[in-house]
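User: Let's play a game. I give you a shape written as tokens, and you guess the letters that built it. Ready? Here's round one.
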């Protein structure tokens, strides 16, 4: 009935709040019986399951309570509550899980709904919990969940991480739309930027919408929180600060007419108010993207992406010159 080394696993709830599982490898010539230690779970938060499972991290205890401690931690992480999540970040979906693992992120716990199996890419030894479909849907943010989520430890780089090579840095100064920030992180990676700085008042790069908008780039692109003094301190490194403004503001220079091939930091301001006076005074120059159409300004993510592209284009041209 079962192929050689196929796996059966079932669970039981012990006295008090302890939960454990019995695990048996069934083959034609080998049997093993192991008691596994599992997280504390209320007796009513799991149910018995006896089923053939696949994958090196297969799990059989099915969590049925939204009050389970790991489920509460996952829900807190999706809500951006760092204290309740233990500083962990939540991701959802096969693509983000694949991107996180491909980028070397450390997974703490993987959650799967009972309707699907554990992906084979999940490393051996990672804690895996199976949730009922109802509990899983109540813990994640999307309306049509894919049945896979994870908690991971975010990488927190310092400002030195963005200063290698010929720096091309995007400074998000007061961006509040997580979709814009995530898009800029993705564009920064696409066009060869060395990093992204976020100033006070900017949405977190680990916001759920920002993570999804980055499509995995957040796992690889250094994103560093920085105050104004730290941004100003880029100048002694030979980095020019260029403030992105509208075409009618502050007599700016067109992007294609300014040298972006050297060490550069591009300042992108708030979606509605733009850059504050402090940033405008700090900037070495003001740059704009000329628009022949009758529009006042571009979306922050589009403007930042176009400037990053122009910098990439100029640098590529410079490298190709003899």
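Assistant: Ready! My guess for every position:
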């Amino acid at each position: 009935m079962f192929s050689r080394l196929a796996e059966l696993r079932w669970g039981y709830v012990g006295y008090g709040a302890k939960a454990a599982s019995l695990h048996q490898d069934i083959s034609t010539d080998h049997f093993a019986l192991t008691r596994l230690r599992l997280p504390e779970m209320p007796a009513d938060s799991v149910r018995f399951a006896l089923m053939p499972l696949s994958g090196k991290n297969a799990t059989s205890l099915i969590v049925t309570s939204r009050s389970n401690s790991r489920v509460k931690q996952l829900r807190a992480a999706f809500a951006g509550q760092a204290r309740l999540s233990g500083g962990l970040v939540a991701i959802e979906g096969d693509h983000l899980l694949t991107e996180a693992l491909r980028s070397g992120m450390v997974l703490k716990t993987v959650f799967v709904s009972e309707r699907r199996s554990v992906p084979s890419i999940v490393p051996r030894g990672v804690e895996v919990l199976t949730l009922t479909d109802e509990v899983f849907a109540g813990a994640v943010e999307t309306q049509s969940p894919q049945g896979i989520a994870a908690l991971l430890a975010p990488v927190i780089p310092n400002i030195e991480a963005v200063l290698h090579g010929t720096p091309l840095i995007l400074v998000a100064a007061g961006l509040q739309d997580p979709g814009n920030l995530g898009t800029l992180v993705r564009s920064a990676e696409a066009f060869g930027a060395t990093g992204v700085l976020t100033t006070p008042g900017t949405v977190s790069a680990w916001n759920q919408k920002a993570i999804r908008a980055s499509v995995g780039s957040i796992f690889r692109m250094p994103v560093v929180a920085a105050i104004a003094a730290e941004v100003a301190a880029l100048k002694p490194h030979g980095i020019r600060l260029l403030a992105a403004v509208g075409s009618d503001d502050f007599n700016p220079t067109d992007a294609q007419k300014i040298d972006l091939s050297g060490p550069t930091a591009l300042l992108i301001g708030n979606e509605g108010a733009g850059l504050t006076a402090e940033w405008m005074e700090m900037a070495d120059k003001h740059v704009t993207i000329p628009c022949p159409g009758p529009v006042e300004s571009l979306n922050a993510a589009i403007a930042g992406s176009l400037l990053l592209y122009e910098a990439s284009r100029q640098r590529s041209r410079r490298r190709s010159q003899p």
